Amino acid sequence: MVATHHLPASAETVHWGYFDAGLDPVLEVASGDTVNLESVSGGPETLPGEGYHIPPELLEVHAKVPRKMPGHMLTGPIHVTGAKAGQVLQVDILDVGLRQDWGYNFVRPLSGGLPGEFDETTHMTIRLHDDTNEGELPWGTRLPLRPFFGVMGCAPPPAWGMISSIQPRAHGGNMDNKELIAGTTLYLPIFVDGARFSAGDGHGCQGDGEVCVTAIETALSGSFRLTVRDDMRLDLPRAENADAFITMAFDEDLDDAAKEALRQMIALIVARTNLNRAQAYALCSLAADLRVTQIVNGNKGVHVMLPKSAL
C-alpha cells in the first residue's frame, strides 16, 4: 500500500546551504509514496516589516540551524527504501502552493548576470496574493505566479563530500528550472542508496535566466510522489510534462551546457524512436527549443524542450 507522509520544515528537518551524502535522513518512505513537504526561505536580512505572516519555523531555523555553506534552506533528506546507486528517482510534482503572503528579491554587488554593474545591495518585499495568484511589486506591477521549487535533488556522490547547494550538478540541486511546476515529472540520477531527496528554494515566479540571482523567493509546500526506477539510467536530470520532454545540463561555460543538454535530447530521441543520431540532431533543429535556465549559479544551465508531438 502506498502511503502519504507529511514533512514539515523545522530545525530538525532543514539543512542550510549544502548537500552531503553523509547527512542522515529525516524521513523514510517506500517507493511510490507521496510526501507533502514544506519549505522555508531566506535569512534574517530578508524578513519583511509588519503586516506579513512569518512562519514561526523560519525564525526557529534562523536560531538553531547552522548555515554550513552559502546556499539554500532545504527540507530533507528523504530516504526512499530500496533505492540503489545507479538507479533513477522519479519525482512526480503533484502540487505546489504558497505558504506565506510575501516573497523577496535582492540585487547585490559582484553577483548576477551583470556582476560589475551594481554597487549597492537593494532588497524588496513582494506581496503575494493567493486569491488572484499574483505577486505585487513595490511599484505596483502585478506578475502572475507560477510557483516551483528552485532546488530539488538527491544526495551527491559520497566522494564529493559536503557541497554548496548553489551550483546545480548531476544530482540536481539548484536547477532553477521554471518548467518544474505542478504536473511535471522530474527524473534524478541516484548516487547514494536511499536516494536522499531534498527540496527548497521556493519561487513564486521567475524568468528564464534568473538574471539578478533571485526570483520571487518564498516559502512553498509541495506534494511529491517518489518512485524508484530500475529501468532507467541517467547521467543528468531530465523532466517531462504533458506536452514536452525536457533535458538539462550545467556547466561554467554556457556553450558547453547547451551542447550537453542537446546531446541529452538527441540520446532521448534515439532511445524512444527508430531515428538515428543524425536524424535526431536534425529534428532538434526543426522542433526543439534551447532555453537558458539560469546564468547566475556558478554552473550555468540550459534546458532543451521538445514537443512530444514531434515524436
Entry keywords:
nine-stranded mixed beta sheet; 3 helices; 13% helix; Endonuclease I-creI; Jelly Rolls; 311 residues; mainly beta
Describe the structure.
With 311 residues, this protein is mainly beta. The protein has two domains: 4-233, Jelly Rolls (Sandwich), CATH 2.60.120; 243-310, Endonuclease I-creI. The protein is 13% helix and 38% strand. The chain is built from three helices and 21 strands. The chain has helices spanning 56-64, 254-272, 277-287; strands at 4-7, 14-16, 18-19, 27-30, 34-38, 73-81, 88-98, 102-107, 122-129, 134-136, 142-144, 148-153, 163-164, 172-174, 185-189, 195-203, 220-229, 238-240, 244-251, 289-294, 300-307. The protein has a nine-stranded mixed beta sheet with strand order 1-5-17-7-15-18-19-21-20. Strands 2, 4, 6, 12, 14 and 16 form a six-stranded mixed beta sheet that branches. The protein has a four-stranded antiparallel beta sheet with strand order 8-9-10-11, with no helix packed on it. A hairpin with a 5-residue loop joins strand 10 (134-136) and strand 11. Helix 2 (254-272) crosses helix 3 (277-287).
